[in-house]
Design brief:
This protein is mainly alpha-helical. It has a domain at 38-66. It is 86% helix and 0% strand. The protein has two helices and no strands. It has helices at residues 2-26, 32-63. α1 runs antiparallel to α2 (32-63). The chain is elongated. 0% of the residues are buried.
């Protein structure tokens, strides 16, 4: 259970950092709507990758480590 809390804290902080990074790279260079769209796309990709990593952890623990 402690690991889940740690994983959630790391996931949330990573997403916040990712959103801030997008803001720093494209903020002021493009329109605000474009920046929001880029942020949504980047965060969607990051969430998908994190979900895959979480699924892999659960899969390895239920089947045993090979």
């Amino acid at each position: 259970m402690k690991e889940v809390i740690i994983y959630l804290i790391v996931a949330v902080s990573s997403l916040l950092l990712m959103a801030y990074t997008v803001h720093m790279f494209v903020g002021g260079l493009v329109e605000e709507k474009t920046q929001e769209m880029i942020t949504i796309i980047v965060l969607g990709v990051a969430v998908t990758i994190m979900a895959f990593l979480g699924w892999d952890i659960v899969r390895r623990r239920t089947r045993g480590h090979r």
